[in-house]
Recover the amino acids of this structure.
């Protein structure tokens, strides 16, 4: 019989792809039990130390870092930091006395989940990617359940522990039903033109930005673009192309209403981070994915291929994007039957109840 969660520890972070699922899980716990006490454990100096308190939750930081791929002095100190972090996590858990622990990936989740399992706290790992990281592979042996977003992860994890839930997503981001007209008005777009949405994450994606700047003159007036270029690139791009930017292209540093951007789009161009892919499955729009080459173990290509193999997305390699990306996007915009097939196929992969299923799993473990 399931019990309400009254005390939970959630650990991990480092990137938005880990932090936002963690916050979504916490929100679902609080929705079911507003009195629930939830404590986050993160890594000192990482973005969770800012984002988690902003979402209304308490967080404690561990002095933990990752293994650098090149020979670095900090690698020699890593074993000591891991032991110190496990001891600190053990004390945090003993003091807080949670009923359950959740690890979402990122530096802090390893020591925290290791300590939780040593103290016999029921624990789960939430793996966002189609190819798991080293930390989650190690933790899989000790935790009770592994909530995954893709088929085929029994290659890496014990099959009897796996639950295919999908990734937790922020419901306000993907609720686009009936919003098309409002969306076009909000972004100052025409209902007579097709819309391309380009999203490179909050910091931006250099390749997507370069693909756009190379192709500005090739985008016809009857196509309109919402181009989210990111914080790192906005000022430079404004200087470089601002004066010559055609009126049918809306370049912005950040998209504050992602739901309206998704609602306005006829096609989407995006990186292939796990949470972005999960959101794209839920909105059901045709998508071109350009995996980032700068992520561990080439996760993004593997995430993208999980969709491409089901004819639910088009993949353009990062190295080819400047030459072919916008041309492929314009071609897709004109191909209505291809768009319909891709929309139908990607929508089949959406898991709208992912967060609820993960919290159900936690409640069953108590």
């Amino acid at each position: 019989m399931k019990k309400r969660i009254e005390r939970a520890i959630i650990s991990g972070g480092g990137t938005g792809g880990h932090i936002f699922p963690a916050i979504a899980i916490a929100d679902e716990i609080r929705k079911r039990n507003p009195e629930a006490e939830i404590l986050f454990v993160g890594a000192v100096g990482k973005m969770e130390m800012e984002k988690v308190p902003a979402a209304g939750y308490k967080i404690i930081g561990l002095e933990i870092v990752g293994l650098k791929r090149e020979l670095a002095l900090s690698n020699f100190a890593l074993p000591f930091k891991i032991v110190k972090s496990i001891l600190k996590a053990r004390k945090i858990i003993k003091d807080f006395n949670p009923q359950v622990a959740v690890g979402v990936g990122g530096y802090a989740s390893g020591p925290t989940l290791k300590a939780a399992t040593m103290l016999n706290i029921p624990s789960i790992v939430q793996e966002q990617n189609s190819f798991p990281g080293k930390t989650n592979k190690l933790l899989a042996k000790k935790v009770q359940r592994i909530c995954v977003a893709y088929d085929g992860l029994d290659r890496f994890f014990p099959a009897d522990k796996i639950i295919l839930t999908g990734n937790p997503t922020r419901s306000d981001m993907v609720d686009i039903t009936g919003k098309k007209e409002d969306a076009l008005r909000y972004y100052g777009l025409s209902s007579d033109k097709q819309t391309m949405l380009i999203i490179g994450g909050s910091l931006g994606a250099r390749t997507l930005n370069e693909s756009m700047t190379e192709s500005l003159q090739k985008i016809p007036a009857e196509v309109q673009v919402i181009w989210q270029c990111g914080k790192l690139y906005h000022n430079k791009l404004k200087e470089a192309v601002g004066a010559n930017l055609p009126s049918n292209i809306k370049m912005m540093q950040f998209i504050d209403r992602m739901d309206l951007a998704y609602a306005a789009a006829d096609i989407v161009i995006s990186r292939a981070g796990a949470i972005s892919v999960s959101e794209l499955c839920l909105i059901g729009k045709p998508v071109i994915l350009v995996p980032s080459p700068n992520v561990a173990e080439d996760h993004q290509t593997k995430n993208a291929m999980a969709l491409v193999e089901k004819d639910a997305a088009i993949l353009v390699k990062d190295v080819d994007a400047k030459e072919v990306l916008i041309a492929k996007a314009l071609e897709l915009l004109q191909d209505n039957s291809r768009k319909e097939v891709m929309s139908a196929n990607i929508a089949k992969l959406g898991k709208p109840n992912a967060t609820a299923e993960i919290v159900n799993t936690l409640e069953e473990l108590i």
